[in-house]
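Shipment paperwork, digital attachment
Item: protein structure file
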Amino acid sequence: MVVERSARIPAAQAVPAVPAVPAVPADPDVQGHRRLTGLGPTFGAGIVTALVGFTSSFAVVIAGLRAVGATERQAASGLLILSVLMGVAGIVFSVRHRMPISIAWSTPGAALLVSVGAGRAHAGHGGAGGYREALGAFAVAGLLTVVTGFSRSLTSWIARIPAPISAAMLAGVIAPICLESAQASVRLPRLALPAVAVWVVLGRFAKRWAVPASLATAFAGLALDPATGGHLTGGLLPTLTATTPRLDIGTLISLALPLYLVTMASQNLAGIAVMRGHGYEPPIREVLMGTGAATTLGAPFGGIAINFAAITAALAASPDAHRDPNRRWIAATTAGALYVLLGLGAAAATALLIAAPPLLIEGVAGLALLPALAGALTTALNDPRYREAATAAFVTTASGITVAGVGAAFWGLAVGLGLLGVARFRATAKPAGT
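Attachment content:
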């Protein structure tokens, strides 16, 4: 056979081997270019994460700070410090652990400020004094988060709060703001209806850009409307404004504790779940202690709270950011750097928002919170065992009541847990066979 004959050819008669071509040293510039090209989608995911995270909810942050008495400069300072803190924290944690650890401000916490501010206004409080008390509540909420990072038992205690009850409290906080979208559509149709229309259309074809485009439409209408345009006030350069916090027991109960709980339940726990869902085990205790300490340090400058990102975390941690999970941390790092840059425009963003009618901005903020409201209501009412207690918690929180200086979010949580406890006691005490 041909194969056998070929196998017996003497070595001296063997066909000479083709001389090996000397290896050409790899061009470092070419290799670097290929690496950067491969990371294009990763950088893109980081940019989208930051743009969506910032533009979709910064109006809620400004509305919340203004609701508790912040001036324009103080609100701009709060937006700036939040952007810088969450950007730096995201970079540090992501680089240190090579994980896409996305950090965000507490959007539910900002929404809580709107409801608490409305409740305090009805009770005759608020103003500059109310703002200083709110800063004290921010600092204490940060300290509670630090303690939670130190204490595994406290973390487990927070996790044991039934999800339907905490979701009902969150829904009660968000619902009044979402109602402003309908109010703005009726009372400011020239400005609000185009924004709503853009939100509806992009919600069908490019959902992540629906709220930013809606806000841009509202700003464009504001600039073209002769009745409201041309009223920008204040400086447009980024500045930090420090204010001494004040501790008030009523505000700590009505704001600090609900801010801590709503941030832990709807942001931190949700963000941890998102990361685990994408195959990561984040350094929970380290991040809780770090973000809690940053929240406390940023409180005098108007910082509400920073925490694990929930919604935007999925953008940086998903396979769309990079096929290799070990490279996705670059997306979160890119987002962190862009957050810092976006924070430099905090003064201009605040000036634009304050030039607009408050109802318009709250209406756009309501559009941003509609998905969160839908998710919270679904969680709150899905399980029949919790439905009655969750409904009571939602109604109490949404009512905006203030009792003994304590706001509705605390009472909503207390009512929900109380009714749930009564129902369980009745079920336990019910005689067998009845």
